[in-house]
Amino acid sequence: MKTITVQTNINTSLEKAWNYWTTSKHITNWNFAIPEWHCPNAENDLSIGGKFSLSMEAKDGSMGFDYSGTYTKIEPISLIEYALEDGRKVHITFNQKGDTIEIIETFEVEDSNTLEQQRQGWQSILDNFKAYTENN
User: N or C: which end of the chain has fewer CB within 10 A?
Assistant: First the structure.
């Protein structure tokens, strides 16, 4: 299956990046691609076989969807792997690079949106994570 990789470097500590990525109260503050959307609900059981469920909705209530999956591999403060409900796999690494944290996220593509739309959407969410983490 074809994959896409997005990445960013964040000016923060590894522990803070991991905490903000994996804690529900933080996920709701960054897990959306554009400012007109938000993430009103996030449930996260960060354990092998644990499940997560995230709601993404337009702020005007016109549309929304749930995004969920099951964790398949976790190496604390360095690696997360999960399978989405449709079977696609996601691999995320957290790497210390000098004074920054490099996050690399690779995901298997779906058939509903173009590859560029998928890349832009996932990169936008990662960029939101960077902004939220650096400013809080």
Answer: N
DSSP 109: -
Distance CA 87, CA 75 (A): 21
Q: In what order do the strands lie in the sheet with 3-10?
A: 3-10, 100-108, 89-97, 79-84, 64-75, 51-58, 37-44
pLDDT value of position 109: 97
pLDDT digits 0-9 by tens, 65-88: 999 999 999 999 999 999 999 999
Is the pTM of the predicted complex or chain greater than 0.85? yes
Residue pLDDT, tens place only, 36-62: 999 999 999 999 999 999 999 999 999
Measured between alpha carbons, how far is 136 from 128 in angstroms, rounded to an integer? 12
User: Which domains can be identified in the chain, with CATH numbers?
Assistant: 3-36+75-135 (3.30.530.20)
Distances, alpha carbon 11 to alpha carbons 8, 14, 84, 130, in Å: 10, 9, 29, 8
Q: Work out the average pLDDT over 5-32.
A: 98
Q: Distance (Å, rounded) from C-alpha 82 to C-alpha 70?
A: 5
